[in-house]
Amino acid sequence: MRRLLLLLLALVPAIAFAQGFQVNLGGQKQIGMGHTGTGLVQDGASIFFNPGAVAMLPENSIQAGISPLFFKSAFNPSGSNTVYHNANKVATPFNAYAVWGPKNGFWKFGLGVYTPFGGLTDWGNSWSGKYVLESLNLKAIYVQPTISIRLANWVSIGGGFVYNHGSVDLTRAIPVSGADGQDGQAQLKGGGNGYGWNAGVFFKATGFTAGVSYRSKVKTTIDGGDAFFTVPASLQANFPQPNTFTASIPLPSTTSVGFGIYPTNKLTLALDVNYVHWSVYKVLAFDYAKNTSTLQDTYSPRNYKDAASFRVGGQYKTTDKLALRVGGGYALTSVRDGYVTPEAPDANRYYFTAGAGYKLSRHFDIDASFEFEKVLSRNQTNIESNLSGTFNTQVYIPGVALTYHW
Question: Which of the residue ranges 49-53, 168-172, 385-389, 396-400 would you say has the lowest mean pLDDT?
Fold first, then answer.
């Protein structure tokens, strides 16, 4: 039982790392084109995709978008015909950007607020993995002021400071029961802040554009997170209350290279390659304010590996007002065998996207997108919890954004 109780606490912030929680829903135009945007100049979402491109934007603008995320996952335990499904809950990643600079000026200032990490899932309290996870609500909100400078007609650079506020609310069952036969419960809840930066360079030529960007690691510290336990009275001394924990979470850096090709004035083609430096996540350590013989500080290896994703997309302007978009991509998992968990049942994945943009008036645009993502089936036995079985996961993400530009 002690092994299970220690594992219960050791896994708390791991939810922030798996590829399944790196949502990266940075902008509706870019989503519609397969999440490409590093080598393009489209709108204020360049603050996220490549701040070097912001100075090339022809107008000032304010925009905001939301992408409700429907996460559908199923688990079939090894040696069983039973299949468990997560509950129908909707996460709401969002993005908002503002870009301003003097008319015909060589610089622009931008501000972005977006959610590159997040998740919402609920497996309930009667499935075989309830001692690993029952429910999870994770949010990471980045705020990024940005400055971009056009050095010449063909090249611009930019960079921004990143402030992150993250929060997590997680529940698990504890393998102890009272007189009513119900399992004990643990709720782990907390928030923290972190800091980083984002920089990029953008190149423009006739019929061709290219960009390189880098988003730094953001080390987020959870200090004073709360741990709540519901256990029989005979065990309460082993779970002192109130109790808190401290931990540091290194959200990984990302290097991106992108290209835009323009065969005609109506057609845009794009390619992005992204490399995420997940290998910074080697171990997970927790320091609890109050310890007992059962509740000890934890040090748990993770040994994640760096992972890449490949994205392609296209846009066709059917008229001066209407643009149609399609795209897709393939992403390699960062989670090694033996470390897959129900918080993020990760595996290699592919996805398809589509979208459309329409000019409502001279100053207002509306953009919509839709994404279908398939996480490949993966049979695993977790080396710490011994949870064994096959995960099958699909994700559906509609989205909409409104832009005012002048």
Answer: 168-172
Sign of the Cα torsion 185, 190, 194, 199 reads positive
Query: What is the CATH classification number for the domain harbouring 226?
Result: 2.40.160.60
Question: Minimal CA–CA distance to 318: which of 278, 358, 370?
Answer: 358
Q: 108 in a domain, yes or no?
A: yes
The C-alpha angle 130, 72, 45, rounded to 5 degrees, equals 120
pLDDT at 313: 98
Q: What is the pTM of this model?
A: 0.90
Q: β-pairing, 84-85 with 90-91?
A: unpaired
Q: How far apart are CA 390 and CA 78, in angstroms?
A: 7
Report whether 256 contacts 212 (CB < 8 A). yes
What is the rounded average pLDDT of the residues 204-218? 96
In a domain, 148, yes or no: yes
| Counted domains in the chain | 1
Query: Nearest to residue 299, comparing CAs of 1, 15, 10?
Result: 10
The pLDDT, as a whole number, for residue 282 is 73
Averaged pLDDT for residues 165-173: 87
Q: What pLDDT is stored for residue 275 in this prediction?
A: 95
C-beta of residue 72 within 8 angstroms of C-beta of residue 83: no
Highest mean pLDDT among 256-260, 335-339, 392-396: 256-260
CA distance 132 to 344: 12
Count other C-beta atoms under 10 Å from residue 267's C-beta: 12
CA-to-CA separations, 199 to 25, 28, 47, 252, in angstroms, rounded:
18, 21, 9, 15
Residue range 222-232: mean pLDDT, rounded: 87
Q: Does a structural domain hold residue 381?
A: no
Residue 138: name the closest of 249, 265, 288 by CA. Answer: 249
Range of the domain at 246: 2-64+94-316
- Note the helical H segments in 131-269: none
Mean pLDDT across the chain, nearest whole number?
89
pLDDT at 12 over 70: no
Domain presence at residue 353? no
Q: Dig out the tokens for 167 from the structure.
A: 């929060």
Whole-angstrom Cα distance, residue 49 to residue 211?
A: 9
Residue 210: closest CA among 127, 273, 118, 290: 273
Residues in the chain: 406
Is the Cβ–Cβ distance between 242 and 261 less than 8 Å? no
